[in-house]
Known about the structure:
By secondary structure, the protein is α/β, with parallel strands linked by helices. The chain contains 13 helices and ten strands.
Amino acid sequence: MTTATTTHRQHFASDNYAGMCPNAARWFQQANGSGHEPAYGEDRWTQRVSDALRELFQTDCDVYFVFNGTAANSLALASLCQSYHSVICTSVAHVETDECGGPEFFSNGSKLMLTEASSAAGKLGKLTPDAVEQLVTKRSDIHYPKPKVVSLTQATELGTVYTVEEVRAIAAIAKRRHLKLHMDGARFANAVATLGCHPSDITWRAGVDVLCFGGTKNGLPVGEAVVFFDRDLSEDFAYRVKQAGQLASKMRFISAPWLGLLEDDTWLLNARHANAMATRLHTAIKAVPGVEVLHPPEANAVFAKLPAAAATALRAEGWRFYEFIAGGGCRFMCAWDTPEAAVDAFAADIRSACAAALTGR
Ligand SMILES: *Cc1c(COP(=O)(O)O)cnc(C)c1O
């Protein structure tokens, strides 16, 4: 067992603990090497990445870049809502639990209306068409915040993944009820890697209007793309971005690294690796006495309950992980750069910490 808190170079708290991947770093350097460039997104790099994203999704979408996922979600939702509207999402949605009221703030008060995240096997952490339908049809009077948007997270906060059919089913009810469909894709890459589908199959082809495409957790230094498949909805979005303080003047340093992700399917390779490391960790700890895996990983996170003393011991050994996420238990998140050796070392420490906790030593 290791003892010093500084010995681990690798952690399992979040995929945003990782640095930038080599491909992203290379394009970051190239953007720097191009000398002076027009500011505020008028540069050649931003143009190139926007075109590359249109090519990736095989459709003529509108693309914007912001610094982080909270801004991406908040501003995207604000663009879909009037202040008297509401957004349907689960009670564990990042927009509800981890954005400090950003979506409500930027929309001037649009209310988030929560469904319980499904606890059914196979639907864990997800919205279901029935739950959406229930909220929409509950009331139709003027005193009820008018439902306008459905927001789903792909992959979900519980590390599960909506199938293509599930996204389509949510989109179908949204369409029937005249709701827009927003996707929080902070871990969109991990979901696509799991499903093995084309990225358009779980976005515009399924009925998603706006995607917040996460790059940070996939290997970028910073920056998320807001992708409007329904281009009418992006009217004046640039002003929103600017007003919110999210318009990077040297935008090329956010956009150019995206070229590194998109080149040679690096985004998918990064995601596949992170997912594989979660599977490896799950396999290594699922039968360890004292460990109760809450559900098998579908993307890059493992959720498990450990004896309290074991969690404390692991922390004392310097491992970092979260315990407050979504359904409870410990969340072990793998990243694009998590080495097999780190997974194995962590699993070994979990095993001995649990053994010690169970025998009271
Ligand atoms: C990380 C994350 C975000 C973005 O968070 P920021 O810290 O604002 O970049 C959004 N949604 C989900 C589900 C996330 O996990």
